[in-house]
Design a protein that fits this description.
Layout: H1 5-8, E1 13-18, H2 20-24, E2 40-47, E3 50-51, H3 56-60, H4 74-84, E4 88-94, H5 143-159, E5 164-168, H6 174-177, H7 200-208, H8 219-235, E6 243-247, H9 253-261, E7 267-270, H10 272-278, H11 280-284, E8 289-293, H12 309-315, E9 318-322, H13 323-327, H14 329-334, H15 351-365, H16 369-372, H17 375-385, H18 395-412, H19 417-439
Parallel strand pairs: 1-2, 1-9, 2-4, 4-5, 5-6, 6-7, 7-8, 8-9
Antiparallel strand pairs: 2-3
Helix pairs in contact: 5-8, 15-19, 17-18, 18-19
């Protein structure tokens, strides 16, 4: 199985967030507008109980394969454009959030099918959020729920080159926990019953090995851990080895930290308010990648804690930003402090990390059969590798090299997705560095 370039190389990620609503709209986002400014596309794959990618697994469960009002080619067109421009793909899934009960919002698909999967009180009353949507939630202790979500993730990762899975909505609202009965968990290993398994015994072994042997305090927490490890294991049945990140807020932080320490996930996605409440010292001790959320559930720092933002920028393994913010980024850089939003609120990628990533990619690409016989690529790569650290004086040379790389991509790697992907990433980082010097 091909390992993920995103796992092999871990540069700071700047992810542009493509929402479910943008996928459903008539004017899908043009990623070319942010090429050279972002290096990851984070896209909604599963939200409010509906999939945004074509899913055969959904039909196996008697559910609609796509979200309502969604062009059946919207997801595939976006992924194709992202790969063509060298972006990594991160998929966001609201695992347990199961949709709404109140009009005019789209009703949960589980109200008609698999209603027994939804969370109920000890008195068997359907629990719904006390808001205008009346959101209902799937029960993580129900093995069929874990089977379904695991199979859905496997379906996604086997069909598309996903480099990261963002698990959102993986815990129930705190208000529910007092009303739910104590879950009963079976002792058998989680093996999804739907979807194609290449080797059931191999998956069973993967699920049993460490760090999956961790035992959690309560049966509810254990059910969450089983859910995450089933999703993570099934994601790795695809063409890559995607990172698994979970979202968290301050209330849920202790449970999230336990998952991180047990090695069940590689990282987390949090907003700046949560980061300020948790504290930079705690995050420094966290054995994980830390992505900051500026787009999905953005929360600005308070005036009292705004001074710690620079600490969090140093910690960041990635930042999720809205498409509009990236498109307007050059304009923001030119604004004075007195004239609107400060550009410091959009964390920068480290120039040194960008260049290190380029050189790492080139050394790895030089070992691939596709390029070892290409003297054009070898000569080009050697010229780049001679630059130990780029400066402003290298801008014109790099700009010329970028044009040469575009021709190399077209000539050498038409049928090799791995090589095309890595060369696309090199091209993306060269864009970042050139833009930095041209606009500084």
């Amino acid at each position: 199985m091909e390992s993920s370039a995103f796992t092999k190389f871990r540069p700071p990620a700047r992810a542009v967030y493509v929402t479910a609503e943008q996928l459903q709209g008539n004017n899908p986002p043009a990623l070319s507008e942010v090429s050279g400014v972002a290096n990851v596309v984070l896209v909604d794959a599963y939200k409010e109980g509906f999939t945004y990618f074509p899913s055969a697994v959904r039909e196996n469960y008697g559910l609609s394969p796509l979200a309502p009002r969604l062009d059946p080619y919207a997801w595939e067109d976006l992924v194709a454009e992202a790969l063509d421009q060298g972006f990594a793909i991160a998929a966001r899934l609201e695992l347990l959030s199961a949709g709404n009960t109140h009009a005019p919002f789209c009703r949960s698909p589980f109200l008609r099918r698999h209603r027994n999967w939804l969370v109920t009180s000890a008195q068997k009353r359907l629990l719904a959020a006390a808001d205008e949507r009346g959101t209902v939630w799937l029960a993580p202790w129900n093995r069929e729920v874990r089977d379904y979500l695991g199979a859905l993730v496997a379906d996604l990762c086997q069909a598309y080159p996903v480099d990261a899975i963002i698990c959102d909505g993986w815990q129930l609202p705190g208000a529910f926990e007092a009303e739910i009965p104590t879950p009963t968990l079976e002792d058998s290993v989680d093996l999804p019953s739907q979807g194609a398994l290449r080797d059931k015994s191999e998956l069973e072994k993967e699920l049993r090995e460490r760090p999956y042997a961790a035992v959690f305090t309560t049966s509810y927490e254990e059910s969450l851990a089983r859910l995450i490890r089933a999703v993570r294991a099934r994601a790795r049945r695809g063409t890559r080895m995607p990172l698994t990140l979970v979202t968290s807020d301050t209330v849920m932080w202790p449970r999230t930290l336990r998952l991180l320490k047990e090695g069940l996930v590689e990282g987390l996605l949090i907003n700046h308010l949560t980061a300020s409440e948790v504290g930079s010292d705690t995050l420094l001790e966290t054995p994980a990648l830390v992505w900051f959320d500026e787009a999905i559930t953005p929360q600005p720092l308070s005036c009292e804690s705004a001074g710690t933002r620079s600490d969090f920028q140093l910690l960041a393994s990635g930042t999720v930003v809205s498409l509009d913010e990236l498109v307007n980024h050059k304009a923001l850089l030119k604004e004075s402090d007195a004239g609107g939003r400060s550009s410091e609120q959009l964390p920068e990628l480290s120039l040194a990390c960008c260049w290190e990533t380029i050189t790492d990619h080139l050394r790895y690409l030089a070992t691939l059969p596709t390029l070892t016989t290409s003297p054009i690529f070898s000569d080009w790569a050697q010229r780049i590798l001679k630059i130990s650290a780029p400066t402003r004086s290298h801008a014109s040379e790099l700009e010329k090299s970028l044009g040469e790389l575009t021709r190399i991509c077209k000539a050498a790697v038409a049928d090799d997705t791995t090589t095309a992907y890595l060369l696309g990433r090199v091209r993306n980082y060269l864009h970042l560095i050139i833009n930095y010097y041209l606009n500084a």
